[in-house]
Every structure is written in structure tokens, then in C-alpha cells.
Design brief:
Layout: H1 3-35, H2 40-53, H3 58-71, H4 78-103, H5 107-115, H6 120-150, H7 162-173, H8 176-207
Length: about 210
């Protein structure tokens, strides 16, 4: 069992999870702003993005980016290529969570904030988002867990993460069950830890209601 390679694969997986989720959060928030914008073209663009990316399998998207980008002259390292594809994919789901969270805030509060002279940005950051966050913690945690498990598909794009390491151990070392058990324990640990952290955050936010 190549433990040094396992450590490297784990580090790559954790890095991929962080980069993917951070990118999905940033883009998803921007898309949500577009979807709730009073400007029709922005709403249409946000709706089109979410509709397309939520209906394309992640594996198809990874393969498309891996083999499609070089054909148009964009040579991106496989690691960042996979991170970009997964961030674009999960951003569509983050967008819908944020939009649903915003809709839980009573419209009267938004109108009152606008009547007091707050700009759209101030209204979102100071009135809407602090309240919407309470209903968004668990759905966003579910997306994090989904994106963490989804990194296993990056092996299909040639990224040397945990699943790629498992394939190497199964093919070269001839110990597929041991390698599978190790990878399974790691993924379970990641998901359970994420769920526990999300639960604590949700309870802490709920105290301030």
C-alpha cells in the first residue's frame, strides 16, 4: 500500500473540495442576485444558466471540459479544469438555495429597507442575507457534501485524487478491497464531519432568532 501517494491524493481531494465549493458559492451568489434582479435580461440569463447546468450530468461536464477546452486552444491543468467544471455545476444549485432563502424574508421588510433609503446592495447585505442565512445553512451543507463526494468523478478527468489512487492500488498493487475500505472511511469522515459542523452552525444561528 503506497501511503505517501495516499497522502498526496487526500491533499489533492481536500484542495479540490475547497476550491470547488468556494467557486460555487461565489458564482452561485452572483447568479442568485441575477435571478432576483428587477432587470429582465439578468433574470433571463440566470434562469438559463441554472436550467442548463442543473440538467447536465457532472461527469458529462467534466469530460466536456477535459477534452473540449484543448480543442479551442485553452490548455488548463487537469486539476483546475476539474475544479472549474465542478464549480460551474454546483453554482447552479447554490443559486437556487440562495434564491429560496431570500424568498423566506418577508417582502415588507425589503420594502421598508428601500423606503429608508438603503440601496439594493445595502438591503441585501444588511437586511435580507442575515435572515435568509438561517434557512440556507443545511441546504448549503448538503451541497458541500455533494460536491465533496462529486470530486470522486475527477478521476475520470485524470486528476490524481482519492478515487484515482484507489484505481492505481486496485490495478497495480492488487489490493482492491483494502484500498476501497481506506477510501470509503475517508469519504465517510469528510461527510460526517461536514454534517456535524453544519449542525452546530445551524444551531448557533437559530439562537439569534
Amino acid at each position: 500500500m503506497n501511503w505517501a501517494a495516499l497522502g498526496s491524493a487526500l491533499a489533492r481531494t481536500l484542495g479540490l473540495i475547497v476550491v470547488t465549493y468556494a467557486g460555487a458559492l461565489a458564482l452561485g451568489l452572483l447568479l442568485a442576485i441575477c435571478r432576483i434582479s428587477p432587470v429582465p435580461p439578468l433574470r433571463a440569463a440566470g434562469t438559463a444558466y441554472v436550467t442548463i447546468f442543473r440538467n447536465v450530468p457532472l461527469l458529462v461536464l467534466l469530460v466536456l471540459f477535459t477534452f473540449g477546452l484543448p480543442n479551442v486552444g485553452l490548455l488548463v491543468p487537469l486539476y483546475y479544469n476539474a475544479a472549474l467544471a465542478m464549480a460551474l455545476y454546483w453554482a447552479a444549485f447554490v443559486c437556487e438555495v440562495v434564491r429560496s432563502g431570500v424568498r423566506t424574508v418577508p417582502r415588507g421588510q425589503i420594502e421598508a429597507a428601500r423606503a429608508l433609503g438603503l440601496t439594493v446592495g445595502q438591503c441585501l447585505s444588511q437586511v435580507v442575507m442575515p435572515q435568509a442565512l438561517r434557512s440556507m445553512v443545511q441546504p448549503l451543507a448538503n451541497i458541500f457534501i455533494g460536491s465533496a463526494l462529486g470530486t470522486a468523478l475527477a478521476a475520470a478527468a485524470g486528476v490524481t485524487e482519492l478515487t484515482f489512487w484507489y484505481q492505481q492500488q486496485a490495478n497495480l498493487a492488487g489490493r482492491p478491497l483494502t484500498a476501497f475500505a481506506v477510501v470509503t472511511v475517508i469519504y465517510v469522515a469528510i461527510t460526517l464531519t461536514s454534517g456535524l459542523i453544519a449542525g452546530r452552525i445551524e444551531r448557533r444561528v437559530a439562537i439569534h432568532r
